[in-house]
Amino acid sequence: MARSAFLLVLLSILSVAATSGAAGNAGASNFIKSKCSAATYPDLCVQSLSNFASTIQQNPRQLVQTALFVSLSRAQSARSHVWKLTKFEGLRPREHAALKDCLEEVSDTVDRLSKSVEELKRVHGAHEKDFLWHISNVETWVSAAMTDENTCSDGFSGKAMNGRIKSSVRARIVDVSRVISNALALISKYAENQG
């Protein structure tokens, strides 16, 4: 839990630093746009990373690090949202079971993304063999995090599950899945260019 709190504080510091210096940072903005063209959802990629332009500058590793932080932050927010939904009165048994399963999956996502953030730090200054090992671990955990999100969504499939709970969870999970997918694309591109 302490690590999660630390990461959220770090993310808010990055956000403040980003918004205070973003005005004259056209080079960083263009860098983000150019790198985001390789993402699965380019517009979302630009939108989610632009606030951090002054932190990212034109540093590929910082770009990937920030993309992971954004993914982690949104996954933590989704976990909190799903947890609150499990406390609603009047849930149908299937909804409650799906929410509990989803909460477990999203918690796994948060755990895997936290590990990815830590592992990416080890890439800095690593020799080629070590770099490939660390970046492979990052890609594995981020891929697994995406699978967790998809598994959560699958729990709400079928017309019997239609309603506000399903819509609310799906909206959050789709958003998290997309930022994770973008982060994975950026990591893969970074690994190609460094390896």
Structure in words:
- With 195 residues, the protein is mainly α.
- The protein has a domain at 61-193: Invertase/pectin methylesterase inhibitor family protein (Butyryl-CoA Dehydrogenase, subunit A, domain 3, Up-down Bundle), CATH 1.20.140.
- Helix content is 81%, strand content 0%.
List keywords for this structure.
21 kDa protein-like; pectinesterase inhibitor activity; 195 residues; Invertase/methylesterase_inhib; signal; PME_Inhibitor; mainly alpha; Butyryl-CoA Dehydrogenase, subunit A, domain 3
> What percentage of residues falls in helices of 4 or more residues?
over 70%
N to C succession of SSEs: HHHHHHHH
CATH superfamily of the domain at 61-193: Invertase/pectin methylesterase inhibitor family protein
Beta-strand residue fraction: under 5%
Count of DSSP strands: 0
Q: Assembly type of the shown chains?
A: single chain
Distance between the termini: 34 Å
Roughly what is the average pLDDT, rounded to an integer? 85
Largest sheet: none
Structural class of the secondary structure composition?
mainly alpha
Number of helices: 8
Low-confidence region ranges: 16-24
Overall 3D form: elongated
CATH T-level topology of the domain at 61-193: Butyryl-CoA Dehydrogenase, subunit A, domain 3
Keywords: Signal
Protein name: 21 kDa protein-like
Organism: Momordica charantia (Bitter gourd)
Signal peptide: 1-21
